[in-house]
Amino acid sequence: MRAFFIFKVMISANYEHDWIVIQGALERVFELPTFSAAIAFVIAVSRIAELSNHHPDISISYTKVTLRSVTHDQGNSITLKDHQLAHKIDAIYFPKA
């Protein structure tokens, strides 16, 4: 467990994000103001996923969008690809002013 913690800290220094590990995957719930905004957010996430060739699991419940990311070709484990994807998705959810 300690090795994972050190790895995560090193990754976080370059790819900061607010995702948490749940059942072996990076996960985050995003709350949007309307259903239409949630759908627009999912479309934006899909564009990032296609460009990254790394696709999260997506669940939509009205204004809440839950994203889960693991690297399937690495034994369904969390890899650098997942941290990079989380960072990119956070950047569209929290755009810099």
Features of this protein?
single chain, 97 residues, alpha+beta, 3 helices, 4 strands, disordered N terminus
Question: Can you characterise this structure?
Answer:
This protein is of the alpha+beta class and about 100 residues long. Helix content is about 45%, strand content about 20%. It has helices spanning about 1-15, 35-50, 80-95; strands at about 20, 25-30, 55-60, 65-70. A four-stranded antiparallel beta sheet has the order 1-2-4-3, with helices on one face. β3 and β4 form a beta hairpin. The model is unreliable at about 1-15 (pLDDT under 50).
What's this model, at a glance?
This protein is of the alpha+beta class and 97 residues long.
Average predicted confidence as pLDDT: 84
Number of strands: 4
Alpha carbon gyration radius? 13 Å
Range of helix content: 40-55%
Sequence stretches where pLDDT stays below 50 over 5 or more residues: 1-13
Tell me the layout of helices and strands.
Blueprint: H1 2-14, E1 20-22, E2 25-31, H2 35-52, E3 57-61, E4 64-69, H3 80-93
Helix pairs in contact: 2-3
